[in-house]
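User: My advisor asked me to double-check a structure prediction for Antibiotic biosynthesis monooxygenase before group meeting. I don't want to rely on an old file, so could you generate it fresh from this sequence?
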Amino acid sequence: MTVALMWEARAVPGRGADLVAWTEEHVRELARRPLRRETFRAPQDRVLVVTWWDAPYDADLPELPEPDGELVTRPVHRWRFESLGEVTDPGAPAGT
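Assistant: Sure, here is a fresh prediction for Antibiotic biosynthesis monooxygenase from the sequence you gave:
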């Protein structure tokens, strides 16, 4: 089974790059390496990190901690998802 952990935070205005650097540093410190990881950025200095794990849904997995309160405007949002496998749109043109 594949589980995806999503971690999203909003940096103090103008500190988005600092929050990205913070996440990169802390991902390297996780007790285990995920199968895959992606980091995203959005307007309003928001940062999203998604990690994929080969584990049961309720597994004890390493997660990014809460950043220092001086770096973020609110508590981190966290979600956990279970993969349903790759789904293709039967109406989509071939190759999409």
